[in-house]
Design brief:
The protein is an alpha/beta fold. It is built from 18 helices and 19 strands. The longest helix is centred in the C-terminal third of the chain and has 15 residues.
């Protein structure tokens, strides 16, 4: 049969299966990513076909291949063609959903077949196998696991196909000698018991998607047509949402304006976040509006709605909250401060936080509105300092000395246990263990960059509890870079880093 006749839509395949079942044919169904066709797949399909008359295979679509940046290597169309080229396969369709649950219910095959590596679903973070078993049972479909030689597409791609640059591949080869995916994931799961307080400014990130239409005849500016817009919960809200996917209890102390945005903000927080809002009396909720070319997602222009003048009346409110509501000795396992330099965190507030935090993680961000004024050195101490190399160089007014020298200077402020992490863009990350006085470096793990906005905040949000929990700093560097690779694939703070996504990416990296 020609490939074009083998490849169907799910709707077409459903009609085909109904006709075949009426003709008395026994239908076998396999489902998967099949990113790299290998002998294990061929033997799997051959064994599946032997169970019945017609073998249909459904392919996970590109948007649901949740194995991290650079995956799938081959598009859904190419993967479908590769599977359809096998003699044992009768029909192929690209799935419409993340797993085969709805497909099984739609097609109602006689037997649903998976490889033997899926027989034990206890390690399946997505719960997809369990849900597929339940779906099969609901339509009277048997489930069978083939038992043959096994290969991993991910392992083969990592080993032989150079998905990552040589430096990254060498790093991963060495890292795999010290850590398995299972051991890293189990350690990350221990973060669930942490109680965390996050403090910082609420920022709403608005994206206006436009297409430039040219220069007006009587002006020297560029005109653009507005196509769409969306608003993200940014700033400390994004940080809290990242944290809430890994830690069980997250308290949030922040400030917003009396401008009708509270309902939107509350609706965009994870359920296990307890927000405590202070209200600016004269200032608005901070909004950063970006005008973005819809074709290339490149930023054209930004407008800030902000009033960042310090208010001593407001300062007293924050201090009252910190000293009465949130000062509970040994209650929080981590206090995380993300300082955007927009007036919320005054010197007096900073000193109280530093004096009363058991374990403190800090970032003082340099951005357009505060360049040169919001330096990490204004924090007298922290257990974990996390910042980028430009922020570190600006803080110590040195653009030429080796970055490790500056890290050692900052580490003098670090209270044990703890350390420093400096993100370095395309150069990866350098972490420093303040107790062992040892540096670790990890290269970037990203393949495609959609937007770097919020990536550093995501790095801080997930690595801070890791440091608080006592993870080795080489592991912190790896986890942080994996988080960063996922974050730069997301437009702004459209969505947070989910535990399931990170676990699957780590599994793909360490196979």
């Amino acid at each position: 049969m020609a490939l074009s006749k083998k490849i169907k839509t799910i709707e077409e395949l459903s009609s085909v299966v109904k006709r075949l079942k009426l003709a008395g044919k026994k239908i076998i169904h396999c489902h998967g990513v099949f990113d790299l066709m290998h002998p294990g797949h061929i033997r799997h399909f051959h064994a599946a076909k032997a169970l019945g008359d017609i073998l249909i295979v459904t392919i996970t679509p590109n948007r649901y291949v949740n194995k991290g940046p650079g995956r799938p290597v081959f598009t859904e169309e190419l993967r479908a063609e590769s599977v359809a080229a096998l003699e044992s396969v009768d029909f192929v369709a690209i799935n419409l959903w993340p797993n085969a649950v709805e497909t099984i219910k739609s097609l109602v095959p006689d037997i649903y077949v998976k490889g033997s590596d899926y027989a034990d679903d206890r390690g399946d973070e997505t719960r997809a196998i369990m849900l597929e078993k339940e779906a099969a049972a609901s339509v009277g479909c048997a489930v069978h696991f083939t038992d043959d030689i096994m290969f991993s597409s991910t392992s083969l791609l990592n080993e032989y196909f150079g998905i990552y640059p040589e430096q990254s591949q060498e790093f991963l080869r060495e890292f795999r000698k010290r850590y398995s995916a299972e051991s890293v994931i189990e350690k990350l799961k221990t973060l669930k018991g942490l109680r965390v307080l996050v403090i910082g400014e609420t920022i709403l990130d608005e994206y206006a998607f436009v297409t430039p239409i040219g220069k007006p005849p009587k002006g020297n500016h560029i005109a653009a047509r507005l196509l769409d817009s969306e608003v993200h919960a940014g700033g400390i809200l994004a940080c809290a949402n990242h944290l809430a996917n890994f830690c069980g209890k997250v308290d949030l102390l922040t400030a917003i304006g009396n401008d009708g945005k509270e309902k939107f903000i509350r609706s965009h927080l994870k359920p296990n976040i307890s927000p405590d809002f202070l209200y600016y009396t004269e200032a608005p909720t901070i909004v950063k509006k970006r005008f973005v070319d819809s074709d290339f997602l490149s930023k054209l222009f930004e407008i800030y709605e902000i009033d960042d003048k310090p208010s001593y009346y407001f300062e007293r409110q924050i201090i009252s909250r910190l000293t009465s509501v949130y000062y509970r000795p040994n209650y929080y396992d981590l206090i995380l401060v993300l300082d955007y330099g927009h007036g919320l965190l005054t010197p007096r507030v900073i000193n109280i936080i530093c004096d009363r935090s058991e374990f403190l993680a800090v970032n003082a961000q340099t951005n357009t509105a505060n360049a040169g004024y919001n330096l990490i050195t204004k924090y007298p101490r922290a257990n974990y300092f996390c910042l980028d190399d430009k922020e570190l160089r600006l803080a110590f007014q040195d653009n030429y000395v080796h970055i490790n020298t500056l890290i050692e200077q900052l580490a003098k402020k670090a209270t044990l246990p703890g350390g420093v992490a400096v993100t370095r863009g395309h150069l990866g990350v350098t972490t420093y263990d303040s107790e062992k006085k040892y540096f670790y470096e990890a290269p970037v793990l990203s393949q495609k960059i959609v937007d770097t906005t919020g990536a550093g905040d995501a790095f801080l949000a997930i690595t801070a509890p890791c440091v608080a929990k006592g993870f080795p700093m080489d592991l912190v560097a790896f986890v942080g870079n994996a988080v960063g690779a996922l974050a730069v694939g997301i437009l702004g703070n459209r969505s947070s880093i989910e535990a399931e996504s990170l676990f699957k990416f780590i599994t793909a990296l360490l196979k």
